[in-house]
TrEMBL record, chain B:
Organism name: Azospirillum oleiclasticum
Domain annotation ABC transporter: ranges: 6-257
InterPro entries named in the record: AAA+_ATPase (IPR003593), ABC_transporter-like_ATP-bd (IPR003439), ABC_transporter-like_CS (IPR017871), ABC_transpr_LolD-like (IPR015854), P-loop_NTPase (IPR027417)
Biased segments, Basic and acidic residues type: 230-239
Domain of life: Bacteria
Name assigned to this protein: ATP-binding cassette domain-containing protein
GO molecular function, one term: ATP binding
Segments for region (Disordered): 230-266
Family: Belongs to the ABC transporter superfamily.
Length: 404, 266
């Protein structure tokens, strides 16, 4: 261990002594690294921002059913266990979703028709600040709340009609308003109800008894099933695979924004390929030039290394002499390149902010991406030092006595 | 009588350079505490090959006996190592540790590391042998008159100053044997005498044996060295490994003949 420390110390002392050579090696690395890092940061920034923009609006991650089906609760339980699914809830048929709302007040009460959707914890339509409605609660859209002149805490009555044996029946379900939705997420007139409430309303309209709500009707011979559903993928990559899987399962579904996402991913792949080619060429060039520099340095320091071997530096420890120098050059070069990247990114973000519309910085690298870039640079540096290290191990101590 | 630090019988070393093959025979050689031995011979006579081999920096071709009594890890006198066997078995780390703890080396032009200060150069042997002793560095600096140069770089030193630093470095880890190859070859006569005196006195003060290869027999004699001459061996018939014998112009067979003073110890 002591010999290893000594070899590292000697390698670093030699590097500091030969300041001009040290600076040249660092600058050569910086010259390769900075353009690569800037290119990489642009790719990450532009593509990342476009993907983030798409992901932020939950409607872009939605998969809609284009033909009604028969979806029992077990179908949804299975989907909710899938890690790719962000949120899923059953739907009533489009006609059954249309109901009337009346504000529960004395006198002439405001009335409006709207659409009801099932909801639950994690529903993207609730945004970040609203909680899912309970059994006798509703979250209204801004448009419906305005029409009803309703606010949080007010009571509204959901009204629906059904005809059984030629006789019309009316449902009046009182609900407490627990939230008003962000119009950016749903701008029409409608409300979110608890999943079970929506299911109960739909069963009532079908003439089925709903004992949990005290509603009478015929006893259903078949278990309840939704005809439709609303599904959001956890992220855009998951949207693609979910869409493929559901389609392969025979469901008629569509993901309206999938094509746009796939275009961005195609652009990302193309940029990745271009970046990969440039990075590989730059990496190989640096590997060869840095390797040759380290080898040449060992040849220039051959007499000093002979003396060290003669005086007791083990062969394997001596090999660390160029390795320590390589790591030092790479670390300092990378640090300098990182500083220059920060300056370049700031300049790019300022100058391109008006011409490219993306969310977030146009040029940016996250800490883990910087970490990967640093690790890759160190790996190339270590690889470049292997030939020089091997050369050091070929130096014999006997060469160090005579003529030095 | 104490066992010698170096005990050699029937050693043969072969050196192959670009255009010639060279063989060295050492019938007997002993070096004990306090010995001061000079290997004398013209350039190309095999002095360096002898010194490198004895100093465990070059593998011998063969040896009947090649023992070196080195220092242990704590600096105490250790058991004798069979150096020929260690080379044969590829125990290179053991040989390297033997060199770092037992030998000190003085090079022809100092052999100082340009990227270390004078003080760091002197401390190098302590660092490599794991025996830190800052006090001894100060003592050697004062004794050799280089204390004021400790912060200097080797490039700032004269030839004589470099040799004084090299002597300090060779003794800083308290070696049992100091090996010097042409330590005065790059100096003028006056400086050569000064350096030889410092080397001999410092080694004597440290109780180290001194083995010097030099072409300056008069200087060696002046400082009381036992002289061993290198010479061609006309009776050499080639070695047991099939090396070329008499009549092959590419071979210079050399035998080392100990002077009576050395041989008398055997």
């Amino acid at each position: 261990m002591s010999g290893m420390r000594t070899a590292v110390w000697l390698g670093l002392r030699d590097l500091l002594h030969d300041r001009a050579g040290f600076a040249t090696q660092v600058l050569a690395l910086v010259a390769v690294l900075v353009p690569l890092l800037v290119l990489y940061s642009l790719r990450v920034g532009v593509i990342g921002s476009l993907v983030a923009q798409l992901s932020e609006d939950p409607r872009n991650r939605q998969i809609a059913v284009t033909r009604q089906g028969h979806f029992p609760p077990s179908f949804f339980d299975e989907l909710r266990r899938d890690g790719r699914v962000g949120f899923v809830v059953g739907h009533a048929s489009p006609i059954a979703r249309e109901v009337a709302f009346t504000k529960a007040v004395q006198g002439v009460a405001p009335r409006a028709e709207g659409i009801v959707l099932g909801s639950g914890p994690g529903d993207p339509l609730l945004g970040r600040r609203l909680t899912a409605p309970g059994r006798f609660q509703a979250v209204l859209t801004r448009a419906l709340a305005t029409r009803l002149d309703a606010a949080v805490g007010d009571r509204v009555v959901l009204g629906a009609l059904r005809t059984i044996d030629g006789r019309d029946e009316e449902l009046a379900l009182p609900l407490t308003v627990t939230g008003i939705m962000d119009p950016a997420l749903w701008e029409g007139e409608g409300a979110l109800l608890a999943d079970e409430t929506l299911a109960a309303v739909e069963q009532w309209r079908d003439g089925t008894a709903v004992p949990a709500f005290g509603w009478t009707g015929v006893e259903s011979a078949v278990p309840f099933a939704y005809r439709n559903f609303r599904l959001y993928a956890r992220d855009l990559p998951a949207l693609r695979s979910l869409h493929l899987e559901l389609t392969a399962g025979g469901l008629s579904v569509s993901a309206p924004r999938l094509k746009e996402f796939e275009n961005i991913m195609g652009l990302n792949s193309a940029l990745g390929l271009i970046f990969g080619i440039i990075a590989t060429a730059g990496g190989i060039g640096f590997l060869l030039s840095f390797g040759a520099t380290l080898w040449g340095n060992v040849e220039r320091k051959r007499q000093a290394l002979c003396v060290l071997r003669l005086h007791g530096l083990l062969r394997r420890d001596a090999a660390l002499f160029p390795v320590a120098q390589a790591v030092a050059v790479v670390t300092i070069g990378w640090g300098l390149a990182w500083l220059l990247l920060a300056v370049a990114a700031e300049a790019l973000n300022r100058s391109l902010a008006g011409s490219i519309r993306v969310d977030g910085a146009i040029s940016r690298l996250d800490p883990h991406q910087l970490g990967i870039a640093f690790a890759a640079t160190v790996a190339v540096g270590l690889l470049a030092s292997t030939a020089a290290a091997w050369r050091v191990t070929r130096i014999e101590p006997g060469e160090g006595i005579h003529g030095l | 009588m104490a066992a010698p630090f170096i005990d050699i019988d029937g050693l043969r070393a072969v050196r192959v350079d670009k255009d010639r093959r060279f063989q060295l025979s050492v019938p007997r050689f002993r070096l004990s505490s306090g010995d001061r031995v000079a290997i004398i011979g013209p350039s190309g006579s095999g002095k360096s090959t002898f010194v490198e081999t004895v100093a465990c920096a070059r593998a011998p071709a063969s040896a009947v006996r090649f023992l070196v009594r080195g220092r242990g890890q704590g600096g105490e006198a250790g058991a004798a190592m069979d150096v020929a066997e260690a080379w044969a078995r590829g125990r290179e780390d053991a040989l390297t540790r033997l060199r770092s703890r037992t030998f000190g080396y003085v090079h022809q032009a100092g052999g100082l590391l340009a990227f270390l200060s004078v003080r760091a150069n002197i401390a190098l042997t302590q660092r490599l042998s794991g025996r830190s002793d800052p006090g001894l560095i100060e003592e050697l600096g004062a004794a050799l008159g280089i204390r004021a140069l400790f912060a200097s770089a080797p490039a700032q030193l004269s030839g004589g100053q470099r040799q004084r630093v090299a002597i300090a470095r060779a003794l800083a880890h308290r070696p049992l044997v100091v090996v010097a190859d042409e330590p005065t070859a790059s100096l003028d006569r006056r400086n050569a005498a000064t350096v030889m005196r410092l080397l001999a006195d410092a080694a004597a003060s440290a109780g180290a044996a001194l083995l010097v290869a030099t072409h300056d027999e008069a200087l060696a004699a002046e400082f009381g060295f036992t002289i061993i001459g290198m010479h061609d061996d006309p009776d050499h018939d080639g070695g047991p490994d099939g090396s070329p014998g008499r009549g092959d112009d590419s071979v210079q067979a050399v035998a080392l003949t100990p002077f009576p003073a050395v041989r008398g110890d055997r």
